[in-house]
Amino acid sequence: MKNTLDKVQLPLRIRYNYEEAPNAALNYAHGVWGGINQQGEIEMNFYLESDTMPKYSERLIEPDGSYGQEECPSDESVKMITRRIHTRVLFNYHTAKAILEWLEERIEAMEMEGDMFMNESGLEQ
Asked: Confidence class of residue 104 from pLDDT cuts 50, 70 and 90?
């Protein structure tokens, strides 16, 4: 019995055309949070960190009517940071492996270039 692929003319190459969605946005990420969901897919939630804004602030009025110091209610024993998730990505095992390989190749290229891409903290300039 012959393989049915013997009869099929396979293309010599596949070309991928890239098109950007109108709502595509460039997002900076300080980190990622996520894991494996119940369907066995990987979920990544990219976030940006910033100091938490106070709910309100107050400015004292001096007896002469001038503005005094502005104060915000806070618990000085706790540093509040807000992590705003801006992008959620869900993918399967095979895509995860492809992303890992892609990242490893880029990191290797950056390490070969040395200081050109990295500052003292190891981050892109």
From this structure: very high
Q: What is the number of residues in the chain?
A: 125
Q: What is the pLDDT of residues 57-93, one digit of tens each?
A: 999 888 898 998 888 888 888 898 999 999 999 999 9
Residue ranges per domain, the chain? 26-91, 92-125
